[in-house]
Amino acid sequence: MIKTKKLGKSLIFFPILGILFSCGSIEKASEYSIVTLNNSNSIIKLSESEPSSGEYYGPNDVELSYTISSITENDIGRYTYLENNINPIKILVVPIHFSDSKLSNGKLEEYKADIDNVFNGINDNEVGFKSVKDFYNISSYGKINLEFDVLDFYNANKSSSLYTNEESTKSLINDALNYFNVDRRQYDGNNDGFIDAVFAIYDVNNYNNNSSSNNKNLWAYTYHSYGLDPSYEAPALSSFAWASYDFMLSGYNDKLDPHTYIHELGHLFGLYDYYDYNSLYSPLSGLDMMEYNIMDHNQYSKMILGWIKPYVVYGNATINVNELRDNHSCIVILSDKKDLVYSKDNTYYFNPFSEYILIEPFTYDESSLNYYDLKYGYNPVNLSPDSVFTTDGYRMYHVDKRLGIVTENSNGYTFELYDSHIPNYDMDGKFFTIISNTSNGESKKLGSLGLSTAMSKYKLNDYFNEINLIAKKTEFVNSYNSLFIHQSEDGQIKLMPISNDYLFMSGDTFNPRNYSNYFVNGGNDSSFIFNSGSTFSSSVIFE
């Protein structure tokens, strides 16, 4: 299944680092007071009639300690993500013509117009789902405004077979930028000496659709370079996406298909893939833009991107559902005895790069980006029309996105967990994303730094779940027939069909003790990263 899907790969390489520079702080930790919260055995109600009340902090009281873009400056390597505070975000789209392409000059002109349409939505009647521009504006609740400048096709005068890896692709894109004499400064919105992003579209079939080539570089992926020096007069190419023109010809209701390009833009913003690269299971049942390239981004993705702020519940509370929807928000339930910090102005800081339960309202109507794929289906992933969710409800997730800090000393590198909610905290070293939805996906990078001892200490080789959907009904089956994979309660990989029974609805109750298979337990040693002595005991009542 995974090999046949239009899925991109996000490639971020970590070299053996020379020097890890210290990160300065804007505010000191002493300016924050720490509040210890106890969620033990609390009851949380979601109500459509009662006003919000009780022990919670609402979006107007909460700030995010970190987002993807805010930790970038203190991340390992030197690569850039798209930033929310640039309006509009200008992205260059570079069509590439190879000598082994079968497309005529007339066809290239036609496809250039199609590419412009897919990205900018010039004629929505010709684009299925939403254009890339419209999708991100809607998904971000108006916070993201993308402008795509589409160049003419660049004639590489070479065969696609000569471009077999990411660095050769980057060289090709640089050739195109130089040929068209592009003013790179127009595409460095944050003035950091790097082009914010480039999207290159090549005009031969991707290798799944290409019987004459098995060049694995002919796929859809996003690449972030490392170790580049900034150039303010001619910003360097650091981050780019790469995909075939044929991804827009997937037959999405006989219209142009933007799904793969939307997915790759998610990587350019800094989101990881949520599917398992080892094809063992589907953490979100495939139903997410960063897993099977369908539907909307979930609220966790939107939160770490800084598009939304949560309701942080730390005890007995009632949350009004209509208010939750109006605020485009989600509910975060902290593990028992979790800490928050607040500043002198009584603003409470929540670190989304931590462990918690997340609840999001799920809307099934034309106002939702989830609606289109569920209603009309999507052939590339064998999603049939009206075959899964056909009603409103709630989706619940277990999130564990804790960070680590890698520091250099006289003996090499050291690694430790980072679990502070204090923004801009003084530290030496660089953030390291520990957990992904692929087994060993992140720990391999630690291994490249010679940190196998740390990997063993924190059990990084054994457990993984950045985000995992908690399905209300855990009905497992023994045969695979376009179903989606989950982990069973005994830890074995089994399969579960998708239906409305996945959603929590009015009248349901969630008790973490009944869903223990969604909370990986690394053991009782306090040094283990997963659930290190923390438990979830808050019950949720959906009224």
Report on the architecture of this protein:
The chain has helices at 68-72, 105-120, 132-139, 166-179, 259-269, 299-304, 321-326, 369-376, 443-448, 452-457; strands at 9-12, 33-36, 43-47, 53-57, 62-64, 89-97, 146-150, 154-155, 194-195, 198-202, 221-224, 236-237, 239-244, 311-320, 331-334, 339-342, 348-350, 355-362, 393-400, 403-409, 412-418, 430-433, 467-470, 484-487, 493-496, 509-510, 539-542. It has 543 residues and is an alpha/beta fold. The chain has three domains: 31-73 and 295-401 and 465-542, no CATH class; 82-269, no CATH class; 405-457, no CATH class. The strands form six sheets. Strands 3, 4, 14, 15, 18, 19, 23, 26 and 27 form a nine-stranded mixed beta sheet that branches. Strands 1, 6, 7, 8, 10, 11 and 13 form a seven-stranded mixed beta sheet that branches. The protein has a four-stranded mixed beta sheet with strand order 2-16-17-5, with no helix packed on it. Strand 24 and strand 25 form a beta hairpin. The longest helix has 16 residues, at 105-120. It is globular and about 65 Å long. The two termini are 38 Å apart.
